[in-house]
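My current task is to audit a protein record that another person submitted. My question to you is simply how this chain folds and whether the C-alpha cells agree. This is what I was given:
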Amino acid sequence: MADGSATNQAIETYKDFWPYYLREHARPRTRAVHFLGTGLSTFFAAIAVVTATWWLVPMALVAGYGPAWIGHFFIEKNRPATFTYPFWSLASDYRMTWTWLSGHLDEELAKAGVDQR
C-alpha cells in the first residue's frame, strides 16, 4: 500500500489516494480556489446540458481546471494530482467540496494529517 507521499510509487487504490489528495490541498486558499472552480465548472456543465449549448463544455473545463491549477502552481506550489490521477482527482474535487459543504472537511483533513493552517 503506497500513499505516494514519501516515495515515487504509484497510488494503487482510491482509499490511499484520498488522504494524499487532501495533503496536496493543505492550504485553505488552495481549497478555496478549488471550490470556486468546482462550482463554476458544475454551473457551466449543467447549463450546457439543460440548454444543449455545447460550446459551454470547454468553458466548464477551463472554469474548473483554471482556478485549481493556479492554486497548485502559485499557492500550494505543487503539481496537480490531475496530471497523474485524472479520474480520482475529479472525483476528489467533488468529494472535497461536498465534505466542506457538509461541515466535515476539518475532520477529514485531520485524519489525512493536514496541519490546519
